[in-house]
Amino acid sequence: MKFGKEFKKQKVPEWTEAYMDYNGLKRILREILQCKQSRQPSTPLRSLHHRLTMHRAFSGLELPQSTEFPSKGDIEDQVIDVSTSLEDGCRKFYKTEFLRKSEEGGDIEVMFFKKLDEELNKVNSFYKDKVEEMVHEASLLNRQMDVLIALRIRQQKHDFEGANAEASCSNDIAAANHPLRDINLGRGCLESTLREDTSNDSDPESTSNPDVNEVHTANCDSACKEEENDRERDPLKILEYVKLNNTLESPLSTIRGVFKDSTDEDLSFNKEELRKVEERLRVVFIEFYHKLRLLKHYSYMNLAAFSKIMKKYEKFTSRRASRSYMKIVDNSYLGSSDEVSGLLERVEATFIKHFSNSNRREGMKSLRPKAKREKHSVTFFSGFFSGCSILLLIAVVLRIQARKLMEKREGVSYVVNIFPLYSLFGYAVLHKLMYVTNIYFWRRYRVNYPFIFGFKQGTELGHREVFMLSNGLALLVLASCLANLHLDSGSNASKYKTVTEMVPLGLVAVVLVILFCPFDIIYRSSRFFFIRCLFRCICAPLYKVTLPDFFLADHLASQVQAIRSFELYICYYGLGEYSRRQSKCHNHGIYNAFYFTVAVIPYWIRFLQCLRRLCEEKDATHGYNGFKYLLTIVAVVMRTTCELKKGRTWIVLALISSAVAVIMNTYWDIVVDWGLLQKKSKNPFLRDKLVVSHKSVYFAAMVLNVLLRLAWMQLVLEFNLPSHHKIAASTVIACLEIIRRGIWSFFRLENEHLNNVGKFRAFKSVPLPFNYYDADADKDD
Predict the structure, then answer these.
(1) Residue pLDDT, tens place only, 390-435
(2) Which pTM was predicted?
(3) What angle do CA 50, 55, 57 make, to 5 degrees?
(4) In Å, how far from its chain's centre is CA 635?
(5) Which SS3 state, helix, strand or coil, does residue 720 take?
(6) Cβ count within 10 A of residue 21
(7) Residues 320 and 431 both lie in one domain
(8) What range does the domain containing 635 cover?
(9) Which phi and psi (to 5°) does residue 539 adopt?
(10) How many domains, the chain?
(11) Cys-Cys crosslink for 721: which of 483, 557, 684, 725, Cβ 3.0 to 4.6 Å?
(12) Following DSSP, what letter does each residue of 508-524 receive, concatenated?
């Protein structure tokens, strides 16, 4: 694979703009090459001279000194001259002067080195900012680990009897379990070291100031003395200035946070608290290590890109400037800083010692989970299940046609009663197929969906795995449907009457058993992730709202018909309707009440989630979003009332409320969720940044969204259709809504990805377990 493609593939998606513009520099090099080729005369003498030159080159003969192929003496100094300047007090910026401007095409080479300097300064500044963030975060983790160690000491003191035993135990534990000092100790003050990089990558013309060095040394010595004093201090004293950070991530913590002014809690010093703190810090360390690895990979890939582009420059221009420029790159902060490598080593040592019981294999397995590999078995079973599903679908259609069920009264009753039971799984299969399509295009256009959804590294499902699961579910459903048809319409149908009616219920039981199976089979991590998100949606607003939560709630809002199918199962089997083979569920008042409630639940969940986010983030956008869902709830209630009670008045009210809801929802989808129709965009009626290169895709998506929203309104209209035709019409409209939601999902996540790219957000924000209050600061206050 060419380096350009590999470079693009290896980029952190959210940092794409911060990488060196390799393709842009290659375009300038192509202009240089075209310029050189256009001025070379194509004559037989020139061709003969070129062949002789090549013959000498490959025969090992030494070329004479010339202006075009000079020796490695002082020619590098004659091609370019790189100077440095300090800006913002401590940041170095590089500027290259091309010394052969007068030659033909020299202006293009001047442009090349100007662009190269811009990219080096950009990459250098970005890398330095990120390293400073990591060093600051490492100092915070130092304090967090100090508190954890103090908690462990206090907890273990209760296992000993007598004051002497307690004192000796405390000293032993403090000596053995004080590792976080190792992260920064020995490296001195990392923040001061960051500011000393000017002395590391200085050139002969830019020497460091000895007075400044003395100041840095004094600051570093004082910081190291403070660290040594901290080590001699009583490790338990820190607990007096620490409180637990209540992140309001559970229903109980949320309720407590409502009735308390502060979200901080006092330490209770019990084992359960210690276990929770250790688990949270473990997650923080894993995420911090992941950040460091990404940052180190960023440095490596950019250094390789600079080396490759300078080799191409030498190849295209026959000038030897790579050595001198790469020396500048290697001496820059990007090439010379070893802070990230040092932090990686110390984080590994700390994590293995304190979170893996000094088991290096287990510790590194947590810090560096294995990348997920594509399995041939997944491809095989995907094809096998899809083939079997198609055959079973044909068999079901042929069975219905052979028995001429639609021409018989019993057959129509069968379709009216049994088909809605199986439609639940049809909606689920269609939803999975839309998710398969989204995953495929997210990966194709490098939308970082695992990071956005917060999937654990190595457990995210690809489009092949989800396609296999959807086909497997379709196979189960169609096999069950065919068995139902066979038992119901056979010659001995009366014998198997009870068995026939229990087939759909048995299918539901099988699917639920697979979903909640506690064993590590059939992608347990993904199943449990879905269950957690579903539970958090049901418990809204008691849980902090994350993107997977409201994303799932939005998808539930498109599955109203599927949710109503669950209610139909309860009525059909709980009230004994299956024994009479005619649906009389709407004759029950309780069923009609739940018929209203079930349709409103998904939108009510989203409304509560918007309220929670409005209270936490103080952003009025969430308030407007919540108002939008209130309008949708009114429209759903009116539509359901119209469906049950009929009447012209209810039809008019349902139409008006649905129209208002459709207009509001369509505007929100296109403008807010997708970020399109921006007035001052360089792409008219779209947005500045687009993932898909074909702009027509976005316009087609907007038109489809409007049309499919209008299809949702068709449920309001009253058609004089037979019962089985009404069921078919509502099923088709429900499927169209699922397709609309699938299209919405792609562009919604694309917009979220671009927002992360704009803010360079490539890491999850993991809250720290402790809030630390400095004793000196408290005294000053």
Answers:
(1) 999 999 888 878 877 666 666 666 667 777 788 889 999 999 999 9
(2) 0.80
(3) 95
(4) 34
(5) coil
(6) 18
(7) no
(8) 376-673+680-758
(9) -90, 10
(10) 2
(11) 725
(12) HHHHHHHHT--SS-SSH
